[in-house]
Model the fold of this input.
Amino acid sequence: MLVFRFKSVWFSVLLIWAMMIIFSVVPVMARTVTDLAGRTIKVPDSVGQIIALRGALSIVCYLDLVDRVVGVEHHEAVSTRWVGSQGRPYRMANPQLGNLPIIGSRNKPQPEKIIKLHPDIIFIGSGAIRIAK
Done:
């Protein structure tokens, strides 16, 4: 029995080692993008789930990526007098956006709700540029 465990442990170690080599050799397909703050980030070539904040939802819709949006800001789901969720052209063309989970408001996105939806990327349309130090 002790010999079996010894072989099992060595087999596991070799398997993990082999997987580490395989995954370190296989390149992850990504693009390098520079954002408006001048930061260079890597974005995967394949993006499945999107969150769009502060006006970025219109651009996401115009790029025909609506089927990848997993959550919206409050004003996109609720009709208001000054904006009207149905009054925007991209919302009129995509009424299903109003049925998605709400991830906060335009000025106060809720990080817990965003993280819960597991987005691959988050687009932000406007706001102050802040660089973390």
